[in-house]
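User: Second chain of the day. Same drill as before.
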Amino acid sequence: MTSDPLGVAVIGAGMVGRAHAAGYRSATTVFDPGLPAVDLVAVADVNEQFAADTARRFGFRRAETSWQAIAEAPDVDVVSVAVANHLHRPVVEGLLAAGKHVLCEKPFAPSIEDAEAMVAAARAAGREAAVGFTFRRSPAISAIREQVEAGMIGRPLHFNGHYWCDYGCDPKAPMSWRYKGGPGSGALADIGSHLVDLAEFLCGPITSVRAATLATFITERALPLGTAMGHAAAELSDVREEVENEDLVTFTIGFASGAVGTLSASRAAYGLPNSLGFELFTESGAATFDLARAGEFRFVDGTAPAATAGYRQVLVGPQHPYLTKGLAMDFPGVNYGQNDLFVYQARAFLDQVAGLDRLPRCPSFEHGLRNMKILAAVVESARAGGADVAVDEPVP
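Assistant: Same format as last time:
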């Protein structure tokens, strides 16, 4: 366990990079004392303006324009990688070789080959290395998981999950890296990776994928004249390029427990900017969650008398994970949102680096590789007309 100050940097100053920067800024304000001092050192982005603005907004000392500057910085110990997916491998390998602890955004890598190389690099470096599946930090989702793991509602039977967004609805939205990379690198990798992770988080290992369908509705987009931030609109050029990946994916999964799942992810769900939700049905109960109502979940079991049986609203409070000392007002009904999950994730990763391990550990690089293998199985099923595709053994 270290008591030395931890120097922190974020590579990538776009939408999710800002979330990581904000998470580190607030990480020392939540949960128990004992974390070493956290020094907000630098934000790096090839767009100098983005880097400078994010550093200023969230209290980092300096801005850089290359990831190499972060790798070479002696005052940086912990780094979040929040850049385009195809850049993950060179950045992560360079940081690990420089002795940094690395928290890499999902999807973990652009290919299984890249993911395997990143796992090998982390093992060789002997540093903390984790993947940012932030929804594991949701108090409501974690509360449902506790009920399942304690056996309070029996084993899971059916998980029906969706992650529906509308950032790809507008044909005038600019071309970006999100629309490049081939089948499986679109809605499946971008948001479906979260959904797959939650399915395993709640129901255990996925062993097969079947009935997969990939669909692309907008087949070409115009290049922006300047640099676009996240999903933001931008002035367009006259140059158009082909969209290489999917707007929508649907598929069915089988779990080692015998449970089944039905999943769909879309970036073309009109009117739904960020709609994550699921229904979980078990042997003797059920639970539902909707990200639009993040501070509650619905739950039913066999404990109520017949006259009042049925789903009940459960407001998240101090008796649930992450709420006690996780909010300034840690009181039932005083809500939290998705941005808070980045705070909890940052604190958990800093605890790992410091050797405290008081919070559940962030998913390992090995878990990121496994997630990639499940996504690859979805693509294989789609290419084979929906055929059943087996998934490798889970991470021990």
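Residues 6-135 form a domain with the Rossmann fold fold (CATH 3.40.50.720).

User: Great, on to the next one.
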